[in-house]
Design a protein that fits this description.
The complex is a heterodimer of chains A (398) and B (221). Chain A is of the alpha+beta class and 398 residues long. Helix content of chain A is 56%, strand content 19%. In chain A, strands 1, 2, 4, 5, 6, 7, 8, 9, 10, 12 and 13 form an 11-stranded mixed β-sheet that branches. Chain B is globular. The relative contact order of chain B is 0.21. Classes of the chains: A alpha+beta (398), B alpha/beta (221). At the A-B interface, helix 2, helix 11 and helix 15 of A face helix 2 of B.
Chain lengths: 398, 221
């Protein structure tokens, strides 16, 4: 009985042969690797970014209220009187209603989200699902304190216990930073400045006893569609947003942006197919003759296909690996210049926003498949055709 | 190993205006240990007949027998297996692979066997030394002279110790000294009772023949 290494010797010999072929035809090998690497890098950076955005969006929905209601006046969002909290609280299954006041502020030419909450009725950590990287949340009786997103701290160069000053026409407000967010939902807390309700109302000019929106939490999540439908019927002037409708909105938003990814997929595949086609046709005379010689020397069709398979697999694998590495480098370390403008779609608001990327096994598999499969097809089919043809005919090239 | 054919016919480009009947109804019988010489003018069909006999090409009509077994109808896989185990072929154009060194070309047929690199190399070196190529072992084939390349091609055909060796004009494009060395080699192979089928115009080789087949316009005379 043959020993194990002996049994695999033939395959090892073929691997050696394939490797030698790659080194022999250096120009061809380098050209293929460079083309595939660029295609995979561009596609990979878009996929990782798109997956990252979608993941962030879906994570944010996980911590969103069951239902959010806003007041619409003449088609625009207006403040919502607190009395609605009383009305809506009468609906079956409503467990709690939390008013929120929020808006946008300019600080050093950048836009940030300012949100006011009342900790006495909104347990921040539990209800909003936010966690802190450092510091603490404020309590109901604390004023002039803020919890900020990590990006706010970075871009304004503010650390824990520093002062953050926001100004409007009539007044300047100063807050001590007592906490910095460290949420999984980094996209949605990154630009957030969380302060007490009263101050935010002053700053954002929200009248007393009103809120920007009301967050409704139900006893039974299964009742969300029914309750939302009833609210719409009873109060047609309110905009009712359920967690499910937020998911739909994100899906359509990122679905739209995924259009870029689809275009890149198409371009990438065309590039790889062109490379594969070039590989198949340019190498035809030379490669066919080689196949004819090998056949004449006793190599079987499967031996020849194995050699070509290994050769192509190495090419595709090396290209995909370098492409994926460069895509990660481009997204993470360079901040995905150019592509982020297309993918984020809000660059005017968040010019320095750190791009969220997510690398899943599925996306990696897709990228490797995109690099390897067309190349395999472009290489193996001509090799197979040569291998099943009479060696004499193949060697003559007729 | 003995080889025979029955009404062997090979037509190229059949059914087209360029149709060529390269071999016509060739019936022959080469016994084990025969030194068969195939002669004929250029374009008479010698190379085609060798290709057919070595199972590198399929006949349009007729049959080929190895040891009384009809092998011409075998599948591609079986014919490949026979070539691997029993046949050595020396091509007129050498057909060496330029990306490999001299010894690697010689050892090429052993690549599809369970042999390590060390074993393949030592076997190739042994046979190359016997053919006077001991100082060319690691050379690129492109750096060898025509005569040396022909000897590499011969070494490659012999490295698996085949039962039957086909050679297509092995002395045609080599100098006189190399030609003599090749003739001596064939004499040795004849002594070892290998079956040899050689197409040639070389009178020295013809003298060694135990069977002389003349071919003209695809017909064995």
């Amino acid at each position: 009985m043959k020993s194990a290494p002996r049994r695999f010797q033939e395959h090892s010999n073929f691997f050696e042969y394939a490797l030698r072929s790659l080194f022999t035809y250096k120009t061809r090998t380098v050209a293929i690797i460079v083309s595939l690497t660029i295609a995979i890098m561009v596609l990979g950076s878009a996929i990782f970014l798109s997956d990252g955005l979608l993941r962030e969006a879906l994570l944010s929905v996980e911590t969103a209220p069951d239902i959010t209601v806003q007041n619409m006046e003449a088609g625009r969002v207006a403040t919502l009187p607190y009395i609605y909290a009383e009305y809506l609280g009468r609906f079956l299954d409503v467990k709690r209603i939390v008013p929120r006041v929020w808006g946008y502020i300019y600080l050093q030419d950048r836009i940030y989200t300012l949100m006011g909450i009342d900790p006495s009725i909104t347990p921040i950590a539990e209800e909003l699902g936010f966690t802190l990287e450092s510091g603490r949340f404020f309590s109901a009786d604390e004023k002039n304190v803020a919890v900020i997103g990590s990006h706010v701290g970075d871009s304004l160069n503010i650390k824990l216990n520093d002062q953050v000053r926001i100004a409007e026409v009539h007044a300047v407000y100063s807050f001590t930073v007592i906490g910095i967010f460290d949420s999984d939902v980094s996209l949605f807390t990154s630009d957030l400045i969380l302060i007490d309700m009263e101050t935010s109302r002053d700053f954002l000019d929200v009248p007393p006893e009103t809120a920007t929106d009301l967050c409704i939490y139900l006893d039974d999540e299964n009742r969300i569609p029914g309750t939302a439908s009833m609210i719409t019927q009873v109060y047609p002037d309110l905009r009712v947003i359920t967690r499910e409708s937020m998911k739909d909105a994100y899906a359509s938003t990122y679905g739209l942006r995924s259009g870029y990814v689809s275009v890149l997929w198409f371009i990438c595949l065309i590039s790889v197919i062109l490379v594969a086609w070039n590989q198949a046709s340019s190498a035809s005379v030379e490669a066919q003759r080689e196949v004819g010689i090998l056949k004449a020397l006793g190599f079987s069709t499967s031996n020849i296909l194995e050699i070509r398979f290994l050769e192509t697999l190495m090419l595709g694998f090396i290209s995909a690996s370098i492409g994926v590495f460069l895509a990660i480098f481009y997204d993470l370390y360079l901040g995905a210049p150019i592509i982020r403008n297309f993918m984020l779609g809000w660059t005017a608001i968040y010019p320095d926003f750190p791009v969220p990327i997510y690398i899943s096994f599925g996306s990696l598999l897709s990228l490797y498949a995109a690099a390897i499969i067309p190349l395999l097809v472009g290489t193996l089919i001509p090799a197979w055709k040569s291998a099943i043809t009479e060696p004499d005919v193949v060697m003559r090239g007729s | 190993m003995k080889v025979a054919t029955q009404n062997l016919t090979k037509v190229y480009f059949k059914g087209t205006p360029n149709e060529v009947k390269a071999i016509k109804d060739a019936t022959l019988d080469i016994r084990e240990g025969d030194f068969c010489i195939l002669t004929g003018p250029s374009g008479s069909g010698k190379t085609t007949l060798l290709s057919l006999l070595a199972l590198l090409s399929r006949p349009t009509k007729g049959r080929i027998f190895y040891e009384d077994e009809e092998v011409s109808s075998y599948s591609d896989a079986w014919q490949t297996k026979i070539r691997k185990e029993k046949v050595g072929f020396i091509f007129q154009q050498y057909n060496l692979l330029p990306q490999f060194s001299t010894w690697e070309n010689v050892a090429l047929p052993n690549l599809c066997r369970q042999m390590s690199k060390t074993e393949r190399r030592s076997q190739a070196v042994r046979i190359m030394q016997s053919l006077g190529l001991g100082d060319r072992i690691d050379f690129k084939v492109a750096h060898l002279s025509g005569g040396e390349q022909q000897r590499v091609a011969i070494a490659r055909a012999l490295v698996t110790d085949p039962e039957i060796i086909f050679a297509d004009e092995p002395t045609a494009s080599v100098d006189e000294d190399t030609g003599s060395a090749i003739i001596d080699l064939f004499k040795d192979l004849k002594k070892k009772e290998k079956t040899l089928v050689v197409s040639t115009h070389d009178n020295s080789l013809m003298k060694e023949a135990t069977l002389h087949l003349r071919i003209q316009n695809g017909t064995i005379l």
